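step: validate -> pass
step: tokenize input -> pass
step: predict -> running
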Amino acid sequence: MSYLETLPTRTEATTTTRPGLVLALACAAELMVGIDVAIVNVALPSIQADLGAGQSVLQWVVVAYGLLLGGFLLVGGRLSDQRGRRRIFITGLAVFTVASLVAGAAQHPGLLIAARGLQGFGAALITPAGLSLIAVTFAEGRPRDRALGLFGAVGGVAGSVGVVASGLLTAGPGWRWAFLVNVPAGVAIIVLAVLFLTRDRSLDRRTPLDLPGATTVTGGLLLFVYALHHGAGHGWVAAPTLALFAAAAALLVAFVRIEARSAFPLVPPATVRNRNLVVANVTGFLAFGALLAFIFIGSLLMQQALGYSPIETGLAWLATTVTIVGAATAGARLVAVAGVRWLLVAGLALLAVGSLWLTRVPAPADYATDVLPAFLLAGFGFGLCGPALQIGALSGVSRSEAGLASGLVETMREVGGAAGVAAVSTVLVAGSGLDGFRTAFACIAVLTVAGAVIAAAGFTRTPRH
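step: predict -> pass
step: emit ->
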């Protein structure tokens, strides 16, 4: 990776027009993408009743979105570098908006699932393009740290907002509006992006996209994420599950060999040699896995063991939502004092304590004393981790590879989240009643401790600004 063409310095950033609008558009798009990860969860029974879908078909309404999102993020990031961040950002928004319209109008489960997959593909273009727009717009240091803090806060609260919004829309105008609400929002963001986002000055158009590399890594990631879903529901040692993991591994090994020989690799060798970037991604895999598993198991705990309704469950997460926003904003400023390494360690330690708190949850449980403290600790913990991970992953990255670095860290978010949820689902199924939930939260604590150890030992130089 060349460090001569770095991301904007403090003086270079002044040449970029409307940085506040760039941040607002990126955050609005990220909110829309993040909400749709969870917005269908509460609406699934209504979708099942309206479209007559079986349970095995219905799960694909959720899986299709995450599958395509996780599989194409890396390619979306690289396309942002080579074909233009603004262009890929707008293209992703257009795909996402059209897919949302199709999903809202769908009269057949198959069409709804296809539309959800198309939404995931659009989201895989939007997220790395939006993150790299922030990276090249704001100067490395406090300006970018604060921007990434807000972007991370939006991403962190989107899931909770999605659960609440799903309950309200399903109980009100109907489940179709969980998708149709994206249409006016998407059109508005597209119009503003077309009118006000500055065109990329210099693009790497002469470098061809590494199609063999893109095909193998996308196929490998798609199969890996699908294998995680399949294994959680059908058993980890079942022949189809093992075959899926073997096929995913074969494609990813082929990707590594292709990259080693390619004249224009999708992931240049210098990227792998950037130790802080690699450590941030490994830590992110574990951290996002722990957080999404915490939200998944926490939601099931409240509904299945504590008797909460779906709307009550969504409202109970507001404590986590609020603390994520506050901690992410503060964490972006604390990077200058503590550095990425120790901010990650502190955040993961708080998340571990919150998980361990729920290993002793009684039945019946009092929300204020048995659940709320854990939710607050988790919110503070991940609020610190989110911006630190993005700052660590983008520190010192060349401007021409900002999209790739963004795609990598977002891929770790999605794949790590899928792996975390699959792992704790298996633990929960193997357990019995409330003891199963307690064991699952203990496993989440193990994930966070592993992430903290890697963050503490892995960074060769703690990035500070």
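step: describe -> DSSP finds 17 helices and no strands in the chain.
step: cleanup -> pass
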